[in-house]
Amino acid sequence: MKKILFFSIIILLPVIVVAQKKVAVMEVKAYEGVKPMHAIMIRGGMETAVGNAKGYEVYDRSNFEAIMQEQNFQRSGAVKDTEIKRLGEIAGVQYIIVPEAAVDGNEVYINVRMLDVETGKFGGIHDKLCQCNAADIKQACEELGAELFGSGSTVLAANPNYLTITVNGVSFDMASVKGGSFVMGCTDGDCYKNELPTHRVTLSSYYIGVFEVTQELWKAVMEEDVPCKRQGDKLPVVSVNWNDAQTFIRKLNSLTGRNFRLPTEAEWEYAARGGAKSKGFKYSGSNTAGEVAWTKDNSEKMQPVGGKKPNELGIYDMSGNVWEWCNDLYGNYSGGEQANPTGPSVGSKRVVRGGSCNTTVEANSSRVTHRASTNPDEPYSDVGFRLVLIL
Q1: Cβ-Cβ contacts under 8 Å for 122 (sequence gap 6 or more)
Q2: Which pTM does this prediction carry?
């Protein structure tokens, strides 16, 4: 009888270990009304969100605090992106989450940005508005984590439609607006006389600010404090008149060597409508004002930029929050087709667009076609501005 020998062959396969990407969470930059316990809950909630994301781990908080102390890093005031990037390089982390919070009544507004330490660039702003209690803050942080990390496998990339500009360490995004033709003026029947007659306008391509000029950017360019009564780095700069905006732009152009200016009224409306991607919304990005606009109906105070949904081009706050200066003198519309119009050649007032947190939805000022005007020498607490860039 033959013996059959069985051989067991054990194949050792290499174990592939994927290194976890390290993410540091900075302490919360707290604005008015934020209590220490709120800040603690938000930072802890974001650290938990990182820990729950596949492929990421939280960098030790005590080590990060020690590095911040060694570098004399101050969270207050205008913080340059390059300073945050330097902290990440010293810590050896891949990403840094920068959270901010403000309280209004019984609600807390949380926004977070995440810096890619290798590139030195931030992704978009992610934000939530929730009740000031532990359960709701925890839920908001979980949702913010899901937005930052997607399904958990990759970090969401910055919008490819954006051009990022950095000046004196502060970065801001400009959205690409592809040139085209549109019917300017009111077409929905709910019109004021100064929104008529409608007329076809053709525009060349340009870039427009994803957000209004923030107080952080104003300080970086002007190297002086903002004139605003309510202050915060991510709040729009207001209480600057049309002439102040021109001074800011001249200095910005000198610092960057680029060609920034205020938008023409036609450029403003085309971008607010969503440009070539327009879906014909009444407000900038929606037919429901509350989805895209801070108005007197949902906030009697201006809010940090980017707190509502963007429009079709990825542009925020073109309806509500603060009025925005345009470059044009104010005057009546004229019929007939126009190419790259710049407004009337004579007049005493300048155009403002967009409505603000001091106007109601019923007043219709947040509609993309609504027009208003004001004295260019007067600063107003609810009027700011947005940039246009011509390449």
Answers
A1: 81, 98, 113, 114, 115, 116, 158, 171
A2: 0.69
Judge if 141 and 250 occupy the same domain: no
- The answer to whether residues 144 and 234 belong to one domain is no
DSSP letter (8 states) at residue 336: S
Tokens of 390: 């011509």
Handedness of CA 375, 379, 384, 387 (dihedral sign): positive
Do 198 and 276 lie in one domain? The reply is: yes
Q: Return d(Cα 202, Cα 208) in angstroms, integer.
A: 17
Is 101 domain-assigned? yes
Q: State the CATH number of the domain containing residue 339.
A: 3.90.1580.10
- Token look-up 């409608």 returns 198
Residue 215 domain-assigned (yes or no): yes
Residue 321: which residues within 8 A CB-CB, separation 6 or more?
A: 212, 236, 293, 294, 302, 303, 305, 307, 354, 356, 357
Do 119 and 172 belong to one domain? no
Domain that holds residue 75: 21-149
Tokens of 15: 């174990």
* Domain containing residue 81: CATH number: 3.40.50.10610
| Number of domain units in the chain | 2
Asked if residues 206 and 262 have their Cβ atoms less than 8 Å apart, the reply is: no
List all residues 6 or more positions away from 188 whose beta carbon is below 8 Å from its beta carbon: 282, 369
| pLDDT tens-digit series, residues 299-326 | 878 999 988 999 999 999 999 999 999 9
| pLDDT tens, residue by residue, 325-337 | 999 999 999 989 9
Instruction: Give which of 228, 272, 164 is closest to 31, Cα–Cα.
Output: 228
In 229-285, DSSP assigns E strands to 260-261
Interatomic CA distance for residues 54 and 198, integer angstroms: 53
